[in-house]
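Example record for the data management plan.
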Amino acid sequence: MTLLLGRRARLRWLHLIIGGALLMPYFLVGTVIVGSFHPGADVFSAPADQLTAFAFALPMAAVTGLFPLVRPLSASAARALCGIPAGVLADGRPKTRQARVRTAGWFTLHVALGGVISGLTLALPPFAVGLMMLPFSRTVRESRTLAPPDALDRPWILAVAPFAGLAMLAALAACAAAAGAVLAGRAPSLLGPTPEDRLAVAERRAAGLAVRNRLARELHDSVGHALSAVTLQAGAARRVLDSDPAFVREALTAIEGTTRRTVGELDAVLGMLRQDEDHAYGDEAPGPALDALDGLLAHCGIPVSYAAEGEPELVPRAVSREAYRIVQEGLSNALRHGGSGARADLRITVDERGLGLTMDSPLPARKAAVRPGGGRGLRGIAERAALLGGSAQSGPRPDGVWRLTARLPLHRPGQEHR
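Corresponding structural encoding:
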């Protein structure tokens, strides 16, 4: 009984009746077309003419299903009334021919089944109730519309009539339940996402993950470097607080400069959260570049020897910004793992092949402790280089030096040289 008259069955029945209501304008146009071939005939009383009008109505409904708004409206109705789980049906207007054709198929199926079930819903219940009242109402029997003239001479007709009426109502409910199940079963394939829709969703998800990864790299490199530098300088100042006030004053000045610069970088990174993807990945995206390298090297907390070949100031902004972050992360690693003798040798070369970066720092005499959750910096360097079509490597050398190298093309893959 639940399958025939439960809540889901009733909602699907309502959905079919809505389909029948949507069919009516097309059916009326169909009757006009059929009537033009039979002047003076009563089209509504001829079953053959009604079936012909129904056949004319379905192609017109299919054309309507090609309109963009049909899919979101149909999906909302199917989701609410057919019991379709969330996420199975596509949202938004169809953007491909395949999606529009599928929507037209769904709309045609909906109005076709809805028209049949709506017609049965209007015609069968009054007839079934009349049959059930036939043995109990003289007025119904005398009307001769539900029973043959000799019904009174055959009592078994009167005995069977109530059961026949109940059977008709049960058959109507079964037909409605079956038609609703057909619609619910076809909804995922006709209103669900096409391969193009799934690809678009995957691309949007990938773009969102790329934004998150970029923000994570920016925060890791700027804030992580600043905290490493400030921690080292504060620790050194604490150790000589009483014996070397001049060094303490210099360390505090360096801490102040580092924090001021980092606050500005943090504001720029957080500002990216309020921008769309085109701005976030554009060449004018905020963030320091190689023109701010002198300030970074002066306040990084360790001695750095720097040599440049070519013209780093002419490097495209996007490449210059990533190169700055790679240098910053390399210095952070030298700070964290270099111990008391931490220093770095930095060389940047710019030529027609691209930008080359090499940073050497001495390996500590004792292996540094591994921080829980650490190890993302070198992976971030490799990701930055790969996004520009370049490469980065790092590792220890036999001469006791940790070397970081990166090669970045001056133009992104597929971008024409200007």
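Summary line stored alongside the record: The longest strand covers residues 354-362.
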